[in-house]
Amino acid sequence: MAEPTTRIGLAGLAVMGQNLALNIAEKGFPISVYNRTTSKVDETVERAQQEGNLPVYGYHDPEAFVHSIQKPRVIIMLVKAGAPVDQTIKTLSAYMEKGDCIIDGGNEWYENTERREKEVAELGLLYLGMGVSGGEEGARNGPSLMPGGSFEAFKYIEDILLNVAAQVPESGPCVTYIGKGGSGNFVKMIHNGIEYGDMQLIAEAYDVLKSVGKLSNEELQSVFSEWNRGELLSFLIEITADIFGIKDDKADGYLVDKVLDKTGMKGTGKWTVQQAAELSVAAPTIQASLDARFLSGLKEERVEAAKFFKSGGFDDILADQPVDKQTLIDDVRKALYAAKICSYAQGMNLIRAKSAEKGWDLKLGDLARIWKGGCIIRAIFLDRIKQAYDRNPDLANLLVDPEFAKEIIDRQSAWRRVVCLAINSGITTPGMSASLAYFDTYRRGRLPANLVQAQRDYFGAHTYERIDIEGSYHTEWFKLAKHLMFIYCQERTIKLYIADLSPILTGLAPQIKTNQNLPCKGVDDSPCKSLMSDPTYQDMCCLGALIKKPNQTYRFNQKNNELVRCSVCLTPKKQLILKLMENWSRSSDEEPNTCFHDLVYLSWRPPPRDYLDCEHRHGDNEPGRRKHLKPLNHHFLLHLLWPLVDVGEGLLAKLCLGVM
Prior knowledge:
- With 660 residues, the protein is of the alpha/beta class.
- Helix content is 42%, strand content 11%.
- Helix 14 (325-358) packs across helix 17 (402-425).
């Protein structure tokens, strides 16, 4: 007798595939199943018979499998991501017709989903990438489903998905159409990234309680069971409590203590962190959880490192610190909850950033709703996340939602105590620490990033913005720092600042003091302040601080449209040239530290050799003395390499001193 036509097909019968097929059949939808390894087909059909004679029909031949499904055909694939997906599509599409639909239910890279959607469209086929969360238990009894791609394909099976998905009272089925393209797979990927962070934070809470608080497994089971009745109620807290209560059936003690401390991974956490970098979205908690898994994989190295440092007096626990158990338990609970908020905030920000980039228009509140049941990260506080985004769909960050902000503020002291206690004990809490740093960084209006940007501009001319003036700026930091004296003119007072002076000044200028006030007289007796506002005099500055007798006034001027040449090398100077209008010299027997300004040659090229006296004034063998300038009796030139900068109240003449 011919087998009946089924409503849907499923290819790929590993644990997830088998359980999802049985779930679909149990909800009243006859299903065809196929697997390249035929024994898996027979196993699934046998399970269906044992679990209530469910309408599951197995096929060993791909053509017969495809033709057993009613049109338009819908086939779900649950195979390993990557090449196996492409091979399965190739095998099945050979027998499919225009209007049929393929759904990838695996953890696939979202760009592969978008590529495949375009490729099968050329065959007239529709395509969905559907995230499935909940593990084997969720697949069998109700997962969280995140389908994205062809909306037409979604409508084909919407009724099936609504029945198969986890059901949450007052919220409904844990499924919704996510959006276009690879949005379904992307959302599932971020879900897994949040899961990485959540699991790491729980592991750190366990480590602090066990290693510092000395809680037994029985006590840990009791604590986590209690936590699962409050604000931390979640699937992961529930199963953690269960784990602490399982005795080892192969030896004495508890099984959790025999499990190798080496965490595996399948790649979605790494993808999440890569996307965070691509989108320039901070996700330090998720990053820390990934790094923790990397380090856990270095088991042999860590064992040797522990021996090495123990020989130097460093035990696993640096110091046993007296703690009150109940106080510690309460503090860790608060720290875990606050850090958990940060992990979810980072994940939501990643989804929003990608949605904006791709034009997916994803609804973050809807995502929180469908994660409330079936999935690994299901938690009671997802209700609150949904409410936060319902109140404000444009919420910049969960941290600034009024309710979450209040909860973090109430818990931040305990959070800091736990992190400090762990650090002082030598216990690693990378997730909690990263979350705390994320919170503290986000809440500060002013960060030391100004210094980092200044460094970037220093070595790479990357420019910077100012907080007081619009625009992009670049500063010649090296020249200013190494060869510069600052003359700040305000009203009739010159303030002299000496920056890190070049070696030529060593021993030559001890008389010059920083922040030295000197009388200043503007050109034509006009105050400096008036000159600053007059474009005619933008290239003028009084430099009375550069002479031996500071009470005298020296004026510098640049004649309009006059090409001035250096009196020594006759090189035309396009830069502003300030000429001292006073002939001044000194005798060769004067002490060099009384004044050196007659010979200061402000240029980025070394001066002619005849500017230098090759003899050391105090003897060739005296260390630390520089060659001194040969006295010359002429007008000297001061070459200013940058325009004068208007700094509001004053004028900053930037004068570079050439390396002699």
